[in-house]
Design goal:
Blueprint lengths: L14 H13 L9 H24 L3 H9 L4 H12 L8 H11 L1 H5 L8 H13 L6 H6 L6 H13 L3 H14 L7 H18 L3 E2 L2 E2 H14 L10 E3 L5 E3 L7 E7 L6 H14 L5 E7 L3 H9 L6 E4 L4 H5 L7 E5 L5 E5 L3 H12 L1
Parallel strand pairs: 5-6, 6-7
Antiparallel strand pairs: 1-2, 3-4, 5-8, 8-9
Helix pairs in contact: 2-3, 2-4, 4-5, 7-9, 9-10, 10-11, 10-12, 11-12
Length: 366
């Protein structure tokens, strides 16, 4: 019950001050940081509209200066992600939060990896909430698939639980698809591939046309089958053509006969500085050897040109500001590295890390 000005001992204060203090007291009856579905929806819609406007501006910009200015105005998904997390973090037991948690996994995984000192990362809080409140929810399908955007062994346990306990066969299919995608992190062992195939079959049969975000279960299953057949370890890397920062055309197959580290990257990816440093160090290490680092970059060509001139990114890059190459390789998470042998076969897929270097060293030793 809200106390009156008399109860608060404010009778000696001017009327305007008493009114403001009572208003403040009333506002405190609403839980702090209690986000709402409406606020979350407004945030995601505003971002998506601003992103579309940005794409239009970039496409319509004429001349280097105008293009550079337009490109620099790219909406920041992680800023929206942080604000969206503040809306849903105290409502993870509510079913409406599931779609927005999935939006975060799809559009701003970096915001889910960040955590305050002494706190659990947002991604783990979401996973715990799903396990505790939403295993049987009809609205969990989108999130079940989106979880795979942040590789985590604990995802598989929750997805298996959804598949086993959710009463809706279509949601079970979505959970099976989420497992098939998440199992990529375990590599190309034949047992893993067999399990992925089984989960994809169930996803296609049971999930079929169930909507998950802007796609369907069967549509995403088709993508996963393509990745298994063409972008997995042992597959021949898909060839493509493009231009570098000097607008000189070249293709991936131009480097057949060399070990190739094909790195998809951009400057706003998570831990960009660290990943760029790892690639730069590898580029220096393989100088004079039968290996080369080739980048596929989504930044504005002027940004990429300056970074190359400054020696920040000394390797050759395909300029992929239209994302055509990234779409061909179905890249959803950056950075991503494919290590190819001299015949163009994929021998390693992962992030820029020590395993990348180990794969290169092993191929050069043969």
């Amino acid at each position: 019950m809200i106390e009156s000005p008399v109860d608060l001992g404010m009778t000696h204060l001017p009327l305007r001050m008493r009114t403001l203090i009572v208003s403040l007291s009333l506002s405190l009856t609403v839980p702090l940081f209690a986000g709402t579905a409406t606020q979350a929806r407004n945030l995601t819609r505003a971002y998506e509209q601003s992103f579309q406007n940005w794409v239009t501006q970039v496409q319509g910009a004429k001349g280097g200066d105008a293009q550079g200015a337009a490109w620099a105005a790219r909406p920041d998904p992680d800023e929206t992600g942080r604000r969206l997390w503040s809306e849903i973090r105290n409502n993870l037991n509510e079913s409406w939060s599931l779609d927005y948690a999935a939006w975060l996994y799809e559009n701003s995984p970096a915001s889910l990896a960040q955590r305050r000192a002494g706190e659990v990362a947002p991604a783990m809080k979401i996973l715990k909430a799903v396990d505790q409140f939403h295993v049987g929810s009809p609205r969990v399908a989108y999130l079940a698939v989106s979880l795979s955007n942040i590789p985590n062994h604990k995802n598989l346990g929750v997805l298996e639980k959804i598949e086993a306990q959710n009463p809706d066969p279509r949601v079970q299919g979505a959970a099976a698809l989420g497992q098939a995608i998440s199992l990529r992190m375990l590599g190309g062992d034949w047992k893993v591939i067999r399990k992925r195939q089984e989960k994809l079959k169930k996803a296609i049969i049971q999930g079929n046309d169930l909507p998950v975000g802007k796609n369907t279960v069967i549509g995403l299953a088709e993508v996963e089958i393509f990745i298994m057949n063409h972008l997995n370890v042992g597959s021949e890397a898909l060839d493509f053509k493009g231009v570098d920062i000097t607008m000189k055309p070249f293709s991936l197959s131009d480097y057949r006969g060399k070990v190739v580290v094909l790195a998809f990257w951009h400057t706003w990816m998570p831990e960009a500085d660290r990943s760029i440093e790892l690639l730069r160090n590898l580029h220096k290490e393989v100088q004079g050897k039968n290996a080369v680092v080739i980048g596929v970059n989504q930044d504005h060509p002027l940004t990429l040109r300056k970074m190359t001139a400054d020696g920040v990114t000394p390797w050759r890059n395909f300029s992929d500001s239209t994302r055509s190459i990234a779409k061909k390789y179905h890249i959803k998470n950056w950075p991503k590295v494919f290590v190819l042998d001299v015949d163009g076969k994929i021998k390693h897929v992962g992030a820029p890390d020590s395993f990348m270097n180990i794969a290169v060293d092993a191929l050069l030793a043969n």
